[in-house]
Description:
Chain A has 485 residues and is an alpha+beta fold. Helix content of chain A is 34%, strand content 20%.
Amino acid sequence: MILGYNEFVSQTAEQIASNLGRIVGEEKVLHGSAVERVYSSDAYTVERFPPTVVALPTSTEDVALIVRFCLEQDLPFTPRGAGTGLSGGAMPALGGVVVSTKKLTAILDFSVEDQWLHAHSGIANLKITKAVEPFGYHFAPDPSSQSVSTLGGNIAMNSGGPHTLKYGVTAQHILGLRYVNGKGEIITIGGPAGQEPGYDLLSLVIGSEGTLGIVTEAWVRLTKNPSAICTASAYFSTIEDASKCVGAMVRSGVMPAALEMMDHFVLAAVAAAYPIHVPNGTAAMLLIETDGEPESAKSDIDELISIAQLHNTIETALAQNQEERTLLWTARKKGVGALGRLAPTVVTHDGVIPPSRLPKMLDAVYAIAQSQNIGVANIFHAGDGNLHPIFYFDEREPGAIDRVVIAGEMVIEKCLELGGSVTGEHGIGVEKTDLLAKMYSANSLAFQARLREVFRSPQACNPCKVIPSGKGCLEHKVRWRGVAT
Amino acid sequence: MNIQTPEKIGDLREACCSGEPFRVIGAGSALHWLPDWTGLHISTKKLNQVLEFRPDDLVIRAQAGTTVEEIQSVAKKSGLTLPVASPEFGWLGYAGTTIGGMLSLGLPHYWQKSTGSIRDWIIAAQTISSSGEELEFGAQVVKSVAGFDVHRALVGSRGGLLVLTEVTLRLFPIKLLPATPECTVQQPCWINHGLRSQFNPARSHLAVDASQQFIWTDQPLSNYHAIGPAGERFPQPSPQVKEIQSQLKKLCDPNGVLIEGWKS
Ligand SMILES: Cc1cc2nc3c(=O)[nH]c(=O)nc-3n(C[C@@H](O)[C@H](O)[C@H](O)COP(=O)(O)OP(=O)(O)OC[C@H]3O[C@@H](n4cnc5c(N)ncnc54)[C@H](O)[C@@H]3O)c2cc1C
Ligand SMILES: Cc1cc2nc3c(=O)[nH]c(=O)nc-3n(C[C@H](O)[C@H](O)[C@H](O)COP(=O)(O)OP(=O)(O)OC[C@H]3O[C@@H](n4cnc5c(N)ncnc54)[C@H](O)[C@@H]3O)c2cc1C
């Protein structure tokens, strides 16, 4: 990998590190080749670019100092949480300073009675839930990356998860936030009681992928744990039966808390690592969960199981205890990781279609993979039509990466053709900037790009992301791919 | 009061970009709550078609002037509903209420605790700006993170930002609505200042939304204190937040043609 110096930054990393260190404390600034490598991409590793330095603020005030330093020195800066993003959002596209929230992890205050918690943005999602578990509450957004992905990253991406189907995405659970804007000013929107009167700003900052500023603190809504949870699995001998079953469940009038699908490629990989039971001849499995009061959770799961049985199931099973439930969820949450067993490289895609079109869409996904001669496995949020085809291949094989890129584009085209969206969870980042134009008119995109002005966020704040218009982004695109390994 | 009621989108667009200041309205049922405006009103109430209903995907798309009643009656045929209070489920408000007006007002409703704000049920919007530009946001599916959620931000904007012409909503199974409304009281009142904890939805039976400064209550307003013993107040925007809000207004409506529904 060639990680080099870049023309947008005229000082050396040492100079910048020592100048910034003088302002916030030298222990909070990192540089050097190891740092450059680690922070050159997020979990979307196809595109990379090294930061010049990495800053590790421990307070909102530190972040403000860092941003002002960047403005004075004319350095681009990029917020970063745990780096689990899957569209290149935390890649420092033009170099400069990566502002990592790694050390911004405190819970600042909370009230169980009023159902809110105030924390720094670098806290891992699951830590919030763990903190309020003794009181019978949790933080509802549950991305599969929740053990490491940060509150700030979840807010920036408006992340979802399996239970989004019933409980909504991150936006529904944020009461307020504090951020440092692109001018280095500290702004607070909302708080424990929600947003102030006037136009809604939270909806714009949430999901802005770090382009409107660096979120340093947030007030989140706490959700009461349901008194009962029922989890079941249903195994089908064809993909078509399973996907038709999803449609039937969606329109049944029962609201599952989660409805996830895994195909046999995923199940095979998971079964090799965990003691899960997969009946012979299974083409796809649905993981179905209901929750609420004990009677309603039970009657709902019974109803969903009987719908499944109308779709030629090989077998259905209701988890009998917490252990069995945990095993099913382990299979789901570790499924992507387990795919590493199938091939050296996996690339996870993300697109959305109306759930009724699922049978058509899955047909297309397998056909596309076949046409490009790569493997594909599916593990996804079936209930809201949020597809995650995972291509697996050996990147050392000549032409493989190109075919994967083509297959990804074909999948997204198909989502659009079926009336869907180019992303349900992973965001635009640098990966999908060209695809937005397929969903929105030039006018709408120009309008959205100008939200940066509304929030006083210059192009230097997470440059080249979402709707790139800063100078250098186009020229740089080639370079990111060029240094990919 | 001068009211125009265009019947075609093209006419609405023309009316919006004439340069004359106007207030966009639906049925006009909430005007007594808004700052006075005696000039031009442009109503969407004749742009009232349900354009697409896909019960299997829990999605309905309609013109902004469609009545909430109409949307509910179409959805009901498939056992679905927009899970916010509606005339059908016993709100005492005006039955001609339009979906555009309801979203733009963004009031709390009596199932808010279970089903969330109406903001959580809009998934896409078509709009016209006061300069005649057509702008679209969101996607026709229940989950999407493509682009900024401007459609959500328009909820509660009270007509001051962009003119809604078409909205796509997510629907909810009727049989899952709580059997009894969580807030039965139907006495709307505005609050400008109040004690935060009194309005916390986690504690009270009231339907409340801080950002709309609005509660439904059967108590006399004097029961609500302006400032609590520890100095807490109902949240008010800081000067910085006000500045961003005014920049947002400028982006949407640079010439200030759209009459705002916020009392300053
Ligand atoms: C006793 C009572 C009980 C009620 N209960 C409820 C309730 O439980 N839940 C609830 O939601 N409402 C309730 N309402 C209020 C409801 O009836 C509102 O009056 C209604 O939502 C407004 O709809 P409208 O079409 O009349 O809008 P209008 O009064 O015409 O407009 C309302 C606001 O929306 C803006 N607006 C209208 N159309 C558009 C558009 N196309 N684009 C942009 N902005 C637009 C206007 O500028 C204005 O600021 C109640 C009212 C009463 C009197
Ligand atoms: C195995 C795996 C499973 C996943 N499962 C899911 C899933 O189920 N659902 C889902 O939605 N996503 C999922 N993701 C994607 C990813 O985990 C989420 O997008 C997550 O929210 C990113 O959080 P992070 O802390 O890692 O952010 P990063 O990757 O560090 O950053 C993501 C983006 O947010 C910005 N950002 C980060 N912190 C801040 C901040 N404090 N202020 C402003 N901007 C900031 C960055 O600039 C970047 O644009 C998964 C990823 C992996 C690797």
